[in-house]
Design brief:
Blueprint (H helix, E strand, L loop, with lengths): L2 E4 L3 H12 L4 H6 E5 L6 H9 L2 E3 L14 E4 L4 H10 L5 E3 L1 H31 L3 E5 L5 E4 L1 H7 L3 H4 L4 H6 L13 H8 L3 E6 L9 E11 L3 E11 L1 H72 L4 H32 L7 E3 L1 H11 L1 H6 L2 E6 L7 E3 L1 H20 L4 E10 L4 E7 L7 H4 L19 H11 L3 E7 L3 E9 L20
Parallel strand pairs: 1-2, 1-4, 2-3, 4-5, 12-14
Antiparallel strand pairs: 6-7, 6-10, 8-9, 9-10, 11-13, 14-15, 15-17, 16-17
Helix pairs in contact: 1-3, 10-11, 12-14, 14-16
């Protein structure tokens, strides 16, 4: 339907403004094609020419078939003009009189005023909200924004309206992706529901600011999204408060852990003393009886010798007494063996292993400790090193002890170099590993005691003196030996030698003799 307006006064201008300038409904805009008024300078005629519509002075020209007019709306109250049009119009052209139009237009205007007032109220409410609120179209253009966003982000309305959201809000590359987060608008489209994300400050000049972003879709017919409502709020202070609470909790946990550690150290010391007491009492009780028996026999022999010459009868008694002493001595030996068996850990599982691999694993595990301590590592590993049979876990425990001790020794010197070397001792069918540090070294008077249980040269609470003792026991269990060289202020060298195959006399957990480890 093509519509022509007759009378280009105030009503005509209002219709054109609302239809062409303030309305996106193309169907209505395309229907109005012509305006007629005897005065070409009326507001309606001027705007019609500006909009490119047909303008004629005589309303009879609207009857021309080339204009294909279907409806004439009379916008002038002059009755004679309405009568003239009714009398002369072709039958196909319908007429809407001025009074009927005015009735509808005033009703529409009242509703428009109500909507305008309601819109103003909503704008006031939205602008009073401190959250950032944007209205964004599916093609990512911002069509509306509240005052809080403009004032806090430092934009003018002209810099925002009609611009792409990633150019204005994000100021980043088009996809607006950030790590595992995707564009919230894309997320809404993909999941067909609202989206919530936590993002860092969208403006590069604002550092360490965090925003909670929520995007809600507005649906139209056909399940298409007409607009997005983008709401974001600055949660930096809330996040900082949460971090502060977390920090305080961590401090409380750390303090409590420290208290527990102090308690544990006290209990460990008490347990150490109790264990030593129990061990001493057990040894004294078990060995005292055979030793007392031997002592009594010695005293008896001595008394007989003091009484006078020894005859055949006395020699027979001496032989009997010596046999008893031999029996008691063996009994003492069995008691010591039983005590050693009692103190020994459960039997370890032996498998083929590569010493170089254990060295590498140990250095990797201690890489952070070495770096913090300022220690550089030099490796000289024999590439042709044969495999040996042993427990990888326990040998690694030995190497861990050597490396950590070396790191602590060199840390106090401001750093240093740890040289690790492996090799094959072919004449003895053994492999060796050597750990040489440039730390503070071990005093000569302490060198013979470093493998004693609970002996330590470390500061209080730095160790309980079991590391080297346990290491010594492990290497001995493998049939090997540990040799130590050290000089105060110049560093220490720990050298481990392990046979390729565990000696058969150790398979059943029997005792294994060893030389003095310190040389």
């Amino acid at each position: 339907m093509n519509i022509a307006l007759v009378g280009a006064g105030t009503y005509c201008k209002e219709i054109l403004e609302n239809t062409f300038l303030n309305n996106n409904e193309t169907e209505v805009r395309q229907s109005i094609v012509a305006v007629s008024d005897p005065d070409p300078e009326t507001p309606g005629m001027l705007l019609a020419r500006q909009l490119g519509l047909i303008t004629v002075k005589d309303c009879h020209e609207l009857y021309d078939p080339k204009y294909d007019i279907h409806l004439i709306i009379v916008l002038t109250p002059e009755q004679k003009i309405l009568e003239e049009i009714l009398r002369t119009r072709p039958s196909k052209i319908r007429i809407l009189s001025y009074h009927v139009f005015e009735l509808f237009w005033k009703a529409i205007s009242r509703e428009t005023d109500k909507l305008r007032e309601r819109t103003k109220e909503m704008e006031t409410i939205i602008n009073g909200i401190q959250d950032f609120i944007l209205v964004i179209t599916p093609d990512r253009k911002i069509v509306d924004v509240n005052d809080a966003f403009l004032s806090k982000m430092g934009f003018s309305r002209e810099e925002v309206i009609g611009k792409l959201c990633h150019d204005v809000y994000q100021r980043t590359y088009p996809e607006c992706n950030e790590g595992d987060l995707v564009c919230p608008l894309s997320d809404v489209i993909r999941n067909e529901r609202e989206c919530r994300q936590i993002r860092k400050s969208p403006v590069p000049t604002r550092k360490d600011r965090y925003f909670e972003v929520e995007v809600y879709p507005i649906w139209e017919k056909g399940r298409k999204i007409s607009k997005f409502i983008h709401i974001s709020r600055d949660i930096t202070e809330r996040r900082r408060e949460e971090e502060e609470i977390t920090h305080r909790l961590e401090e409380m946990v750390e303090k409590r852990t420290r208290q527990l550690k102090e308690t544990h150290d006290k209990l460990l010391h008490q347990d150490k003393m109790a264990s030593l007491g129990k061990l001493s009492a057990s040894v004294v009780h078990e060995i005292n009886n055979p030793i007392a028996g031997i002592l009594n026999l010695i005293m008896l022999i001595k008394r007989i010798l003091e009484e006078g010459p020894v005859g055949e009868e006395e020699l027979e008694k001496f032989s009997h007494y010596i046999n008893l002493m031999q029996t008691e001595t063996r009994r003492t030996g069995r008691i010591v063996s039983n005590l050693l068996a009692f103190s020994r850990q459960s039997k370890i599982e032996m498998k083929p292993l590569n010493l170089n691999r254990i060295v590498d694993q140990t250095l990797v595990l201690n890489s952070n400790l070495l770096r913090i301590s300022g220690v550089k590592v030099k490796k000289h590993l024999d590439k042709n090193l044969p495999e040996l049979v042993g427990s990888a876990d326990q040998i690694q425990q030995v190497f861990m002890n050597f490396v950590s001790n070396a790191a602590e020794a060199m840390e106090s010197m401001g750093g240093g170099t740890l040289t690790v070397e492996t090799g094959h001792i072919s004449d003895g069918e053994k492999v060796m590993a050597k750990f040489k540090d440039t730390g503070k070294g071990i005093a000569k008077e302490d060198l013979t005691r470093i493998f004693e249980p609970f002996f330590t040269t470390k500061k209080e609470k730095k160790g309980v003196g079991l590391g080297l003792s346990v290491a010594y026991g492990i290497i001995e269990e493998h049939g090997g030996s540990i040799h130590v060289e050290s000089q105060k202020g110049k560093g220490s060298t720990f050298r481990v030698e392990i046979p390729l195959n565990r000696p058969s006399n150790l398979e059943d957990g029997g005792a294994h003799g060893h030389e003095n480890p310190c040389c």
